[in-house]
Amino acid sequence: MDRNRVRKPDLRNGESLAFDDFRIDVAALELTRRGVPTGLAPAPVRALLYLARRSGELVTREELYAHLWPDGEVDVEPALNAYIRQIRRALGERGGEDRFIRTYPGRGYRFLPPTGARGRPSRDEAAGWLASPMKAASGIAALLVTGGAAVFGAQDSASRVAGEAGLVDLAPPVRMAYLTGTRLLDAAMPARRGAAVEHFRDVTAAQPDFAAAHSGLAESLIWARDYGGAAASARAALALAPDDARAHRALGTALLVTRWEWDRAERHLRRSVQLAPRSEVSRVALAFLLVAAGRDDAAREQLGAAVENAPASPLTTGDLGTLYLWLGDAENALELCERTLDVEPDASWGAACVRRARAALSRGPPPAPADPADATSEFSRAVALAEAGRHEEALDALEASAARRELGFVTLRAMPELRPLHGLPRFEALERRLFAES
Fold first, then answer.
1. Is residue 339 part of a domain?
2. What dihedral angle (degrees, nearest 10) is formed by the CA atoms of 139, 143, 146, 147?
3. What is the pTM of this model?
4. CA–CA distance from 428 to each of 51, 380, 431, 435 (Å)?
5. Which of 193, 339, 355, 394 is at 20 to 30 A from 118, Cα to Cα?
6. pLDDT digits (tens, 9 = 90+) for 241-267
């Protein structure tokens, strides 16, 4: 019998559900391993029991919310994240393993039925950020390949203080709109951050001289992929407050990712760091530019300073880990991306980074290569084709990506999967085109 098979409890007589070395005492809500209590609290055991009873099914987060908190008496999103994190630890799962529970970011979880190969992710999941538009929605990971957001984590303290200072002058509905937008920008899952746009738009319409609202709008437009709008809002913020670190960061990012204005982008990103030296977010944004430009030593300096600031946002730690992975430092990458999963178990970008770092350190199997048919952009297709050794087709896709000014193209030089193309005449021509304005 497969050891990972869930033996369904007899609800008439039995009070336990067993799988692998574990057993759930249904009546006591206790999880044991080989007869020894794991110490998992009853509430997360209840969540695990619900998942295990539906082994093999995708259980949505909404279903879990309704089952665990039918009265809606708690803030369900962070509570469920904490339960899943505690369950994984009790089961001995490390970040990215998916031995018993598979996460579907933004959707829900599946308790894994028998597979015959415990701990091995499916091809789609192992493909990491190349598999689908939502597979990796972190700052860098989404920017790199899927055409998602740019390099942002939590707001820096300087921008937050500037915003709070202006709140007293706002009418209550406008103040509420600003605070709602600010809260959305702090959301752990990136998909929610673009929703801040409408709230900041309301604030800027009602209070056009409120600089922090313009910079908040600029940042939220970055998440909504409106880079032209982000640049315009950042410039509006800087006209009112030339020392707004968040506006400089937004403008620098917008100038880099689709306009390839390297020098101007770097000036704004360095100014953001200068204005908010303890903001790991600004340092990560600058480090991204430096890694993309091939200036590894300067990038390491910014990354080291960002890590010293003890980042807590799963987006920021995931971005730091991804950049270290690109620089060939798999040890630092693994530590940071595992920290990402500790904070946010649903962080698919962290899981992808963990798998690649472990493979680089010979601590796990290499991720399955992405299928070019699953690509969501010409750039992601080029990466998949390069990994498959189909170099001419990869170059065709890169040329199409350049013509469209796709987001990921800015990482042409840095993307590890594209290194087999380095030195080829067509690749060098693409490099010259990318850096022509530098």
1. no
2. 120
3. 0.68
4. 51, 19, 5, 11
5. 339
6. 999 999 999 999 999 988 999 999 999
